[in-house]
Amino acid sequence: MLYRAGEAFTHLHVLNSGFFKMISVSADGREQVVGLKFRGDWLGFDAIAGASHACDAVAMDTAEVWSLRYDELLQACARRPELLGLMHEAMSHEIVRDRDTLMSICTLPADARVVAFLQHWAQALSVRGLRADQFSLRLTRAEIGNYLGLTLETVSRVLSRLARASLIAFNEKSRRDICIPDLQALESFVQGRVSLNLH
Length: 199
Known about the structure:
Helix content: 40-55%
Distance between the termini: 45 Å
Number of strands: 9
Strand content: 15-25%
Low-confidence stretches: none
Oligomer: single chain
CATH superfamily of the largest domain: Winged helix-like DNA-binding domain superfamily/Winged helix DNA-binding domain
Number of helices: 6
């Protein structure tokens, strides 16, 4: 746990390795996965306005995080405007990613949502120079469903259907280890489901 909801905001954090999930807890105790963080992502932007964190930041694996005092970071930005530019760029990327995730959840049918999630994970690894055709999902199927607004059963059913169609394959030892032989085939699947949904 890097920080918990309600804790006072003092630092921004940059994820140098590993994976984090952001979890929001409702007043009645329901947990919702509201974000995923990969290497190079910043954590804590949402706490700037209210001076306290609005969600929990939980590592999904061994991770390395660089923590920067926010007041000292602002002073450094005043001296080095290019640093402020980098921070604004990171904020913009986060806004775009949140918008794209919301768009997927609101407009895609269930199976296409799961495929879009796999695409996002693969692309996030690829742009960081990591292997994108074979990787380990750090979330359980229940957490994936929670993140996508789907049930555990729906996520499991869609993944099994994708495996039968040879769009993905599972490692024999772990159902979290996924192989994607053709990323373009996944993209075609999503486009096909969207077209079908529109008609």
